[in-house]
Protein 1
Amino acid sequence: HFGEASNMMLVITALDHRKRVDSNLPEWRLTLKEIKRPQFWELPSWLPVPHEPDAMHFEFLGRDELRILVDTYFAELSIYCPLVHWPSFERSLSEGLHLRDNAFGAVVLAICAVASGYRYEQSSTDDYATIFVKSGMKWFKQLPIQQFSLGQDVSLYRSQM
């Protein structure tokens, strides 16, 4: 269906509007500057400024355990929602990018958390510490989720997380 109310027409209208906005960009900037209300565009002074933790402070699994969870994620879970490109992820992981890049380190932690929850079968004899680690909470708790709600730039790794 390609009528006036179709998704295709919505995209075409949005692209046309974008062309008009780009051609009048100085005018739009001036207009936006006049109507912007600082209380909605600036962080309040009482709100802590988000900081990005060092990737070195992330606690990762050992190589063998990490390999098991990554394989589980891509074999069992990624097939339903393929947000991460497997060959690129593998290459970056083998190069140790998760130890140098905070955003990629967070993706690795998210994959560990999801895969741990998938692999873990709770037993009645498990204590709280075992459940915490095996269910993926140990990895999930390290994710810097609060940064995404405070307006930091979005990168590929952040959107994958």
Note: The two ends are 35 Å apart (CA to CA).
Protein 2
Amino acid sequence: MSFLNKYSIRGMSIFFLYVLLNFSFVFEVAAQIRSQSLNNQYTVREIIDSGHNFFGEISGGLATAIEKIFQKYGLPNGYLLGEEGSGAFLGGLTYGEGALYTKNIGVHKIFWQGPSIGWDFGCQGSRVMILVYHLDNIGNIEGRYGGISGSAYFVAGLGFHVLKRNNILLVPIRTGIGIKFGISAGYLKLTLNPTWNPF
């Protein structure tokens, strides 16, 4: 083997070792980021347990609803527990307040308001669990979330729909006293401070 070939082989070996070390570093960083992301998210069991404690005896269908949501949208990185009141006949208002729980940005008081326009009958007073997706800063929770909801609400019943603002998703899960049946095309406005203005 010539002197030149020896140095060529050594140079290639050093190059491949350098590439391998860089790939190892990149994969390690990616694994740490993924692990941190998963640590900031809630599992199905955590959400179901919290929901059962919150809703109590009327949460019989909660596990099924949550499993369907997780299958479609994955793991949330926050959830909100609160109460709201609303009523409508072709149009109405919704007001609520609760606590937002997260693993990475703490616990915060949240308020929500919104008009509801559509074929809604009856009035509703309900406890609400809202799953929150892709929230990285508490200030980003504020704003209007739009969506289309169509659910039947009965005593001891559950209903859920999806609302979106930018890349943040909210999935309210409601159980209510009274009956509300219909399709509502409206939005919810979330704020960090109470307000009567739904717009």
Note: The chain is about 30% helix and 40% strand.
